[in-house]
Amino acid sequence: MEANKNRTLIAVMGDEDTITGMLLAGIGQVSNEPNKEKNFLVCTDNTKEEELELYFNQFVQRDDIAILLINQHIAERIRLLIDMFTNPFPAILEIPSKDHPYDPEKDSVLRRVRRLFGE
């Protein structure tokens, strides 16, 4: 429990509308600390998979992030990386976006739960 008490931030990887909404809700954090400059990434169709992977890896390695929210259509682009991540923190939650509906069949958390229950 002691190691997790500093995890106070929510990170977001999403499209412009999602990030704008989250920043308006107050989750934005920008600092001068190396590798902790900001806790969000605005993704477009032009964002390369390498950049998505880089930010994903940076966010999951930070000790101040408790939850990583990611638009499901962006998660699909780095699905293997997300499926391989098994640490309890940060929790990775896939969320819908305005232009891409949520599909529970693609959600890595729900698939893991189904496997646990033998479905």
Would you kindly provide a written description of the structure presented here, covering whatever features stand out?
There is one protein chain. This protein has 119 residues and is α/β, with parallel strands linked by helices. The protein has a single domain (2-116), classed as ATPase, V1 complex, subunit F (Rossmann fold, 3-Layer(aba) Sandwich). The protein contains five helices and four strands, in the order E-H-E-H-E-H-H-E-H. The protein has helices spanning 16-25, 49-61, 72-75, 79-84, 108-116, and strands spanning 9-14, 40-42, 65-71, 91-95. It has a four-stranded parallel beta sheet, sandwiched between helices. It is globular and about 45 Å long. The mean pLDDT is 88.
Question: Would you kindly provide a brief summary of this structure?
Answer:
With 119 residues, the chain is an alpha/beta fold. 35% of the residues lie in helices and 18% in strands. It has one domain: Rossmann fold, CATH 3.40.50.10580.
